[in-house]
Amino acid sequence: MARNTDNIERDIEAARDQLASTLDELSVRANPKRLVENTKRSVVGTLNEPAVKFSLIGVGAVVAILVIRKIVS
């Protein structure tokens, strides 16, 4: 059974609206400032975890001791 032109036009319009909405959402998600902000927030969150924070403090202390020993020797 053939579809009438009004139904086809409504389907095309609905597809256009959905495509426009999808493109708007992609443009928001792909915004470079937003990507940088999200990455920064993720890195800061990871660095503030106790296991990571104390590991970095330990590594920094070892490096500082090695540098001081090298300078003193």
UniProtKB/TrEMBL annotation:
InterPro entries in UniProt: DUF3618 (IPR022062)
Pfam families: DUF3618 (PF12277)
Protein name: DUF3618 domain-containing protein
Species for this entry: Rhodococcoides corynebacterioides
